[in-house]
Design a protein that fits this description.
Blueprint (H helix, E strand, L loop, with lengths): L8 H6 L2 H24 L10 H6 L13 H12 L21 H13 L10 H18 L5 E5 L2 H16 L13 E6 L4 H9 L7 E4 L9 H13 L3 E8 L11 H10 L4 E4 L24 E5 L11 E5 L42 H36 L3 E3 L7 E6 L6 H18 L5 E5 L2 E7 L7 H19 L1
Parallel strand pairs: 2-3, 2-4, 4-5, 5-6
Antiparallel strand pairs: 1-7, 6-7, 8-9, 9-11, 10-11
Helix pairs in contact: 5-11, 6-11, 7-8, 11-13, 12-13
Length: 488
């Protein structure tokens, strides 16, 4: 009998634990220094380089032989890759809804990567499956549910799709034969709903026209009377409402829909209520801010992003269902090489039975560790700090004669405009866009913009615990200086 060959010296070197240990220690030292520099704001938040120019530096041919040793790899990370990254932990990073991740959560991702628990079925990730179930129970408890079910997915867009697939199957049995023989299905959403909702409608074959936009009030909150009118119109047109989607922390403004009123309306009319809480569901951690989400327990499904206000590395999102049985409605198919049971209950611990992903990494560990190390109270401090910073920035904007505040922040998102006296209309909108472009490319700050009702606003998301009042003053000063230069 031929015995299999032992690994070659080259292969053995690739897996050598001592090499891993030595390189790992040096890598952690490098990243710890990078983190410290970020938090202290030592360097620009971004070393801007036009993408076309940056791309020319990454045109090397595919290496047939090694190009780097361990020391060379660390050097490339230190001098080329980390400096060219957006400094997420920098106090002047006020742009997108991307968390300044907890360092311990990043270490958990290292554990997940090395152990590589694929999690298609229980046997490919036993402890990972149990961690995920534990985290989902905790999140369901925070919502106010006793029999919650669900899964963790790679991002809020996939989570929203999963929830809406379940809502579609609840409305009509279309998994096998499709939607051709059922009434046209409609989804009622806030005008500020995330684009992933209309994308999901397109993916599901409903068409983006199936998404009916509901107007909001001046605070960006869905109008319940307008929801009722849209519902009545849909019925009059012989269409069926597949789901109502409310938003807890919309992307443009951070506004939270009136969940209690919407929930009661949906209960009274037997409508599936989905709450996209990707950004704002974390307010449930806080005694101070939890009341803003009153009524969320009336939802049939909720999406909650860990990589936003739970301060996790991207990406980990929970899609939660009030009733565990609903979590099996999104997907329904056979795959005998994975699934062995004939009933849902027999597949309870086979995670990919209920998600788009088959191979799925250990996502629950970092959430379990964060809650275990810091508790709800500790995690709530992060959220309370972020919301307080948004209120402080809003106060500064209101007190400054050269700026206009869109609305009082409901979460940690603040929208505003620089208002030179000489500019109005489209010229004023173009002014905001130019200011943002100049400021971001200078590397001094990172912020975004948003268009609402045809007008352009500057938009900040206050996520970093190290962003202080002085940083906000510096932001307004920088914008004002750029604005004055533009008018000179």
């Amino acid at each position: 009998m031929n015995t299999p060959p032992t690994p070659s010296a080259d292969i053995a070197a690739m897996f050598a634990p001592e090499t891993f240990r030595e390189l790992g220690h040096k890598l952690i030292d490098l990243l710890a220094d990078y983190l410290a520099g970020n938090l202290a704001g030592q360097d620009p938040v971004m070393h801007w380089q036009a993408p076309e120019k940056a791309d020319t530096q990454w045109q090397m041919p595919l290496p047939q032989e090694p190009l780097l040793d361990a020391a060379g790899l660390l050097a490339r990370l230190k001098h080329d890759i980390l400096p060219a990254s957006l400094a997420i932990h920098h106090p002047h990073n006020m742009g997108h809804q991307v968390a300044t991740p907890l360092p311990v959560a990043a270490l958990c991702d290292l554990v997940a990567a090395l152990t590589n628990q694929a999690m298609a079925v229980y046997e490919t990730g036993p402890s990972a499956t149990m961690l995920e179930r534990q985290v989902l129970r905790w999140l369901g408890e925070l919502i106010g549910w006793q029999d919650a079910g669900g899964i963790l997915t790679s991002g809020g867009a996939q989570a929203n799709l999963t929830a809406l697939l379940a809502a579609r199957q609840h409305a009509a049995d279309v998994w096998k034969h499709g939607v051709a023989d059922v009434k046209p299905l409609r989804i009622l959403v806030s005008e500020h709903a995330h684009y992933s909702i209309s994308r999901a409608a397109g993916i599901m074959g409903l068409g983006t026209d199936a998404v009916v936009s509901i107007p909001t009030d001046t605070e960006g909150r869905m109008l319940v009377n307008a929801l009722a009118l849209a519902h009545a119109e849909a019925l009059a047109n012989d269409t069926a409402i597949m789901a109502v989607v409310a938003t807890a922390g919309c992307t443009p403004t951070g506004s939270i829909d009136p969940l209690l009123e919407i929930g009661r309306y949906c209960r009274d009319h037997d409508l599936w209520l989905h709450v996209d809480g990707a950004h704002g569901a974390s307010a449930l951690l806080s005694e101070l801010h939890r009341p803003a989400l009153e009524g969320i327990a009336l939802a049939d499904s909720v999406v909650w992003d860990g990589h936003k206000l739970l301060y996790m590395p991207a990406a980990v999102s929970a899609v939660l269902f009030r009733n565990t049985a609903s979590s099996f409605q999104a997907f329904s198919q056979d795959a005998s090489y994975l699934f062995q049971g004939g009933e849902h209950i027999e597949e309870m611990y086979n995670v990919s039975y209920r998600t788009l992903e088959c191979t799925k990494r250990m996502m629950g560990l970092k959430l379990w560790v964060a809650f275990s190390l810091y508790g709800v109270r500790g995690m709530a401090q992060l959220l309370d700090s972020a919301f307080a910073k948004a209120r402080l920035l809003a106060q500064k904007l209101e007190a400054h004669p050269d700026f206009e505040l869109l609305m009082q922040p409901q979460t940690n998102i603040v929208c505003f405009r620089h208002r030179p006296a000489a500019l109005e209309g489209s010229a004023l909108d173009m002014h905001q866009s130019r200011l943002r472009e100049q400021l971001v490319q200078s590397g001094r700050f990172h912020l975004t913009r948003v268009t609402l009702e045809g007008r352009v606003w500057l938009r900040t998301t206050l996520m970093n615990p190290y962003t202080q009042s002085e940083d906000m003053d510096e932001l307004l000063l920088a914008l004002n200086q750029l604005g004055q230069q533009a008018q000179a």
